[in-house]
């Protein structure tokens, strides 16, 4: 086999591994509130999330096309497979580190930062498609802010509507409703996050002249959907504990409000073909709901730790990818 084919195979394996890890790293966020309020048992939540993530991943490809062409131009990227492989190794490493410590870091930040870092190491800052790259960064920054504000508003509306209702009956009703919101949130997660790996594989195929357009091959879509579904089935208990209990004490009405908010923001981003961090959106919506419920009830220390991780993910993953590119370039 020639070097291009070997590198392409390694990228496909790496991208599917990234999607698999994303499944238990990020999908945990989608079901954390439903598990913490006992709306769903952990096993039930994971099976539901795996199925809905697969369905979501098979529905859209717009975000994948954005990843393929908006960070760097795959048609002009020299040594593209090595760049992409380095980015994948760096993103996977950072995901595993943050998963180990139970920190809900962003897989989206990690892979986008890694691609940028490896591309800069390969061809300088001119390798970046600045218009597309800045558009992606804007979506990553704006989406959690919108989620916080929307979470605050949605929960405030819930409080107003249900203030005179029996608390026990209201919580019981919302616990049932959370089954629907957990499914919806898992579906929207699949529509956005699974597509990132699809875009990466497509970049490699274009870079090595196996594809001439940015259209996502059906085998890429199916394999990424399966990888994310399998990853989801493993579960991410450390992340579930952080999101489901260490930000605030979540009750069914809080969880439902946060789930609806984050699902709407994520799906809105998918609709306009923009990648967002599902981790940031979900945790920000919980923070917004918590602030509307009782500001002092939010564990701001946990929130601060997550915020720091969010900020450092891009530069750290970019740096890791740049170092990895230099090492891989010696081999290939």
From TrEMBL:
Residue ranges of the TM segments: 45-68, 80-102, 108-128, 140-162, 218-240, 252-272, 307-328
Alphabetic keyword roster: Membrane, Transmembrane, Transmembrane helix, Transport
Tagged with keyword Calcium: no
Keyword Mitochondrion attributed: no
Coiled-coil region: none
Name of this chain's protein: Anion permease
Originating species: Ectobacillus funiculus
Subcellular localization: Membrane
Extent of the signal sequence: none
Taxonomy, superkingdom: Bacteria
Membrane topology according to the record: Multi-pass membrane protein
Primary location recorded for the protein, binned into one broad class: membrane
């Amino acid at each position: 086999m020639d070097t291009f084919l070997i590198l392409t195979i390694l990228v496909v394996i790496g991208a599917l591994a990234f999607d698999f890890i994303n499944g238990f790293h990020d999908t945990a966020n989608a079901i954390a509130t439903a598990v913490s309020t006992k709306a769903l048992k952990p096993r039930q939540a994971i099976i539901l999330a795996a199925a809905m993530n697969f369905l979501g991943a098979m529905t859209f490809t717009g975000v994948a096309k954005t990843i393929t062409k908006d960070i760097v131009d795959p048609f002009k990227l020299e040594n593209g497979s090595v760049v992409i492989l380095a980015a994948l190794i760096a993103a996977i490493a950072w995901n595993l580190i943050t998963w180990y410590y139970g920190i809900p870091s962003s897989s989206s930040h990690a892979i986008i930062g890694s691609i940028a870092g490896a591309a800069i190491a390969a061809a300088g800052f001119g390798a970046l498609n600045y218009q597309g790259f800045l558009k992606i960064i804007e979506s990553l920054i704006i989406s959690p802010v919108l989620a916080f504000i929307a979470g605050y508003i949605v929960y405030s509306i819930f409080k107003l509507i249900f203030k005179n209702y029996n608390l026990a009956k209201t919580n019981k009703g919302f616990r049932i409703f959370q089954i629907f919101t957990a499914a919806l949130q898992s579906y929207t997660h699949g529509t956005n996050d699974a597509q990132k790996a699809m875009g990466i594989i497509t970049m490699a195929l274009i870079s090595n002249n196996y594809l001439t357009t940015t259209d996502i091959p059906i085998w890429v879509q199916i394999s990424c959907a399966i990888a994310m579904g399998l990853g989801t089935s493993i579960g991410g208990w450390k992340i579930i504990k952080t999101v489901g209990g260490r930000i605030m004490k979540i009750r069914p009405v809080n969880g439902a409000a946060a789930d609806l908010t984050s699902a709407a923001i994520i799906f809105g981003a998918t609709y306009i073909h923009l990648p967002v961090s599902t981790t940031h959106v979900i945790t920000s919506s919980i923070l917004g709901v918590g602030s509307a419920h009782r500001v002092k009830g939010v564990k701001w220390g946990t929130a601060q730790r997550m915020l720091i991780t969010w900020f450092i993910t891009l530069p750290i993953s970019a740096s890791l990818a740049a170092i990895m590119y230099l090492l891989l370039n010696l081999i290939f």
